[in-house]
C-alpha cells in the first residue's frame, strides 16, 4: 500500500496491472488509477504480452469472466461452521464493482439465446450452456 500511495502521489497517469488468480477487491486503487488491466495468471510470456499492450503494439480488449466484488464481504466463502448473522450476504442489495462481462472492446457483439444441454440437472450431474456470439462490428 505504501508503494501504491507513493506512486499515486507523483501526480502522473497510472496504469494498474493486476496479476492474480481470482477476483480481488480493488476499491482504493480504482478510485486513483487512470486505467486498470486484469492480467490474471499471465504465465511465462505474460510479461511480454502485457508490455505489448502497455506500449501500444496490440490493442487491449476483453470481458470479465467473473464478477469483481465491491468488498471482501461479497466474496463467497465456505466454512464448515454454524451459520452466522452474515449468512445472507449473497442476497444483500450490494452491486459489484465490475459485473460479469464488464470490459473494453473495440467492436460490438450480438449474443444469442442460451441453450441448455439438458432441461434438468441431476445431483452430481452437469449441464452445458451454449450461446452463439457474433461480431457485429467492424473490428
How would you briefly describe this protein structure?
The protein has 139 residues and is α+β, with helices and mostly antiparallel strands. The protein is built from 3 helices and 8 strands; from the N terminus they run αβαβαββββββ.
How would you characterize the overall build of this protein?
With 139 residues, this protein is an alpha+beta fold. It has one domain (2-107): Rossmann fold (3-Layer(aba) Sandwich). The protein is built from three helices and eight strands. The protein is globular, with a radius of gyration of 19 Å. The termini are far apart.
Give descriptors for this structure.
3 helices; alpha+beta; about 140 residues; 8 strands; Rossmann fold; about 15% strand
The biggest beta sheet, please? 2 strands, parallel
Shape: globular
Number of strands: 8
SSE pattern? HEHEHEEEEEE
Helix content, binned percent: 10-25%
In CATH's first tier, which class applies? Alpha Beta
Structural class, judged by helices and strands? alpha+beta
Q: Which strand order do you get reading across the main beta sheet?
A: 1-2
CATH third-tier fold name: Rossmann fold
What is the CATH architecture assignment? 3-Layer(aba) Sandwich
Report the total helices: 3
How many domains make up the coordinates?
1
Amino acid at each position: 500500500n505504501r508503494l501504491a500511495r507513493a506512486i499515486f502521489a507523483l501526480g502522473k497517469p497510472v496504469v494498474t496491472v493486476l496479476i492474480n488468480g481470482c477476483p480481488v477487491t480493488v476499491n482504493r486503487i480504482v478510485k486513483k488509477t487512470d486505467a486498470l488491466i486484469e492480467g490474471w495468471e499471465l504465465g511465462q510470456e505474460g510479461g511480454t504480452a502485457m508490455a505489448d499492450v502497455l506500449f501500444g503494439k496490440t490493442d487491449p480488449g476483453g470481458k470479465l469472466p467473473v464478477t469483481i466484488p465491491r468488498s471482501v464481504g461479497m466474496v463467497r466463502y465456505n466454512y464448515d461452521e454454524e451459520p452466522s448473522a452474515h449468512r445472507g450476504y449473497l442476497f444483500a442489495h450490494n452491486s459489484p464493482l465490475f459485473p460479469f462481462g464488464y470490459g473494453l472492446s473495440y467492436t460490438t457483439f450480438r449474443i444469442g439465446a442460451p441453450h441448455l444441454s439438458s432441461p434438468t440437472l441431476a445431483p452430481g450431474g452437469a449441464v452445458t450452456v451454449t450461446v452463439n456470439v457474433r461480431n457485429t462490428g467492424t473490428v
